[in-house]
Amino acid sequence: MDKYIVGLFNDDEKLMKAVEAFRKAGVAIHDVLTPYPVHGLDAAMGLKDSRLHTVGFLAGASGCLFALGFIIWTNAVSYPTNFGGKPLISIPSYIPVTFEVTVLSAAVTMVVAFFVRSGFSVFKQPRIFDERTTDDHFAMIFETNDKNENDLSKIRELLKHNGAVEVNEKSFE
Amino acid sequence: MSAYESPIREPLVTGGKTYHQITRDIVRSTEGMPPLSWFAVTGLAATVLMLGSLAILYTLWMGIGTWGLNRTVGWAWDITNFVWWIGIGHAGTLISAILLIFRQRWRTGINRSAEAMTIFAVMCAGLFPGIHMGRPWDAFFIFPYPNTRGPLWPNFNSPLLWDVFAISTYFTVSLLFWYSGLLPDFATIRDQAKSKFRKLTYNALSFGWTGSAKHWQRFESLSLVLAGLATPLVLSVHTIVSFDFATSVIPGWHTTIFPPYFVAGAIFSGFAMVLTLMIITRKVLKLEDYITIGHIESMNKVIILTGSIVGIAYITELFMAWYSGYMYEQYAFYNRALGPYWWAYWIMMFCNVVSPQVFWIKKLRRSVAFTFFMSIIINIGMWFERFVIIVTSLHRDFLPSSWTYFTPTIVDIGIFAATLGLFFTLFLLFARTFPVVAMAEVKAILKTSGDTQKQRHTEHVDDGHHGGGEVAGVLRNKA
């Protein structure tokens, strides 16, 4: 059984202040759920930067090289064909397809990476800490399995002090 | 966070909305039984689709000899409709990608449905080259796959093959961009749902989204890079479509002005279609607080800009035809304006060059009824633009004995009707089951651009200083 404390906020600025306060107090935050992206929250929580854009760049670069190499191979090696007296390797007219394949591979790989890394799937049954977090509330989640009553009251206290509108407990099987 | 926005800028969300009201306003349109009028309109669109599909089936059965095409005019309604639909799609990507990069906050109210429009329009567009092949069951021949014919690869020097890659990439990337943006909003619908079935369905659609900070971080990174990729992509798509014409040696097609001119025309027609759909949607789903008059005005400004670019392109073409001293080019343009298709040319000129200029008048830019009327006029005008470019350049070729006049058959008309039916059926289904406004994005700009929030901000700034100007107020506030 996993037990959690859920602190609910109704304002993103209060949430940010609370996150900073908890970081300062050295309490580990399990997760923060927000209805929309709150800018600067990832930095405040000390999350590492996403490497998704690197994935996009690498996939785009390899898609680009693959497309160009493949077109040259088909036209000059596999089945050399003279089109309108142009050279067998005529780079300018290969650029449109190369560009499209670059964009396609970057985009598809990034989206796949995003879904896989975040564990999204049609069958995923996520833990819903509070149904209002996709509506108008911001939630700070704390794991409580390894904490004693003293730690818990400290968390509750700190949440209330920083403007949490509700502090609830939630457990999952 | 609540960044400061000048009070001169109109609020983008009116009606003093809170986060919860935004949720309810958008989710409501997916709940309960749709009204009778929705069934009526969807029924009508689906009927048109069904009847039009008969024309498609007839084409598949009999071949493209059932169309109005002949030996001289080998491209007509099919390619006109293809380019028209693709062009319409471009506005959606412009709104979702280019305006994201330019940090235009007004995109948030309309991007979701504009992107949906893009996807449906590209589906309609893709149909035409498909059935124009004559043997669509061999359509896979266009893809470079190892085959038993050599292997004989497709011609990578051909603009028609570039088109295959451009359109399929465009469709895929638009779909991925749109769908990844939908995840948080599907999760909102799931959490608002009462019945188990709805919860399960929307949970599956949301892929188990919860709004975790790490997911949002990735989400933001993904949308920014996808926007960066979609921006050159959308420009490349219509550039490549214009290459279908520009790389040929037909007078009237063989011009270097085509790529920018086609891209501007695409955005022009696309915004007109967005306006047509948005004006109906905001009224029917009561979204006037999210798609405000300010949004309509912004779109009309894009229409003036792109419409003027299109107008200048038309005039440049005419000038260059004359200035080139090339007889055939001169004749192609003389024939456009004064030949048998003069009526199509002047409809195009009137709808695309003259009519958008009325939007310089602020009152007309902000009039919903007039904008709706104009959006239809522009859609018609842009359809005729493609028709004029394609048919008038072809119907009088180099050999006067093969000059003809193209008239569409009932099958041509039926197929076009089918795509209109498909487009509106899909859009109407979308409007009832999907969140038509990007809730998470609107919530994210509410503090900066909501009307009551802005009001509060301005009052706050004005406190304790007189005649000091806003900047001083802000600075004082910060200190």
Describe this structure in words.
The complex is a heterodimer of chains A (173) and B (479). Chain A has 173 residues and is of the alpha+beta class. Chain A contains five helices and four strands; from the N terminus they run E-H-E-H-H-H-E-H-E. Chain A has helices at residues 12-25, 41-45, 52-78, 95-118, 149-161; strands spanning 2-9, 31-33, 138-143, 166-172. Chain A is elongated and about 80 Å long. Chain B is an all-alpha fold and 479 residues long. In chain B, helix 2 (36-62) runs antiparallel to helix 14 (410-433). The longest helix of chain B is centred in the middle third of the chain and has 34 residues, at 159-192. The radius of gyration of chain B is 24 Å and the shape is globular. The chains are: A alpha+beta (173), B mainly alpha (479).
What are its keywords?
heterodimer; A: 173 residues; alpha+beta; 5 helices; B: mainly alpha; 17 helices; 71% helix; globular
* Proportion of strand residues of chain B: under 5%
Greatest interface by residues involved: A-B, 69 and 68 residues
Helix content of chain A: 40-55%
| Helix and strand run of chain B | HHHHHHHHHHHHHHHHH
Compute the number of helices of chain B: 17
Name the shape of chain B in a single word.
globular
Structural class from helices and strands of chain B?
A: mainly alpha
Let me know the largest β-sheet of chain B: none
Helix share bin of chain B = over 70%
Order of helices and strands of chain A: EHEHHHEHE
Unreliable spans of chain A are none
Radius of gyration of chain A: 25 Å
Give the strand order of the largest sheet of chain A, numbering strands 1, 2, ... along the chain. Answer: 2-3-1-4
Proportion of residues in β-strands of chain A: 5-15%
Q: Tell me the radius of gyration of chain B.
A: 24 Å
Major sheet summary line of chain A? 4 strands, antiparallel
State the total count of DSSP E strands of chain B: 0
**What class would the helix/strand composition of chain A place it in?**
alpha+beta
Oligomer: heterodimer
| C-alpha end-to-end distance of chain B | 18 Å
